[in-house]
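Provenance and format

Records in this collection were gathered into a single text stream. Each protein contributes a sequence line and a token line. The two records reproduced below are adjacent in the stream.
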Amino acid sequence: MELAVVVGHCTATVKDASLSGRRFALVRGTDDTGKPVGGLEAALDVTGAGVGQVVLLTRGSAARQPAENRQLAADLSIVAIVDDLTLPPAPGPTPTARRRTTAKRTTRGAAHQTQSRK
């Protein structure tokens, strides 16, 4: 299965008879952060997903496995609407402590002036 985002819908008036009355969604795959990537694809939508929703897709013969799709001419199907995604923190370099540099105040100039006045 793959994650994708529904970005629109598709209407087809002339189609295979097995697809009559079926809804199609335009989907785009997502990266690890859930942002859309890749090209648009039309998927058979048995879930009624709306634009902006994250969905699970199946491809190939698996797209015809849900009971109501077995006899359909489908190669890509939305089989679930994702309610929540939980990802572990992204691996990366560990943060390093910043070195603080504090400028030392010098009073040498002031002391020097004081001594000169004497």
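Adjacent record:
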Amino acid sequence: MKIVFQHTHVTVRPVQYHGTVIIGVFFPYHPELVRHIKKVRDTSFSTTLCCWMTPYRDTIEQEIQSVWEGQATFDFSLLRVYSGTVIKAAGTLHRLLF
């Protein structure tokens, strides 16, 4: 059975969680959407932030898009701004304010 949620809008952006910047994935609740987001590595739901969260990695945008296989629209604009501000220096990941 194919569940229709083509018009679901998914926003992916950096958020602060316990002093660390992580990636928040925001979308309206639907059991099928939840089933799909759980396929993304290292995701968990935050009741504090009311979103799904995952650590930042260079491949996160592709991972999130692949679990919905074209069945949702995405807003990665703030994630892309954040990705442009991540600087690797001396083996340590430094995050600039966004």
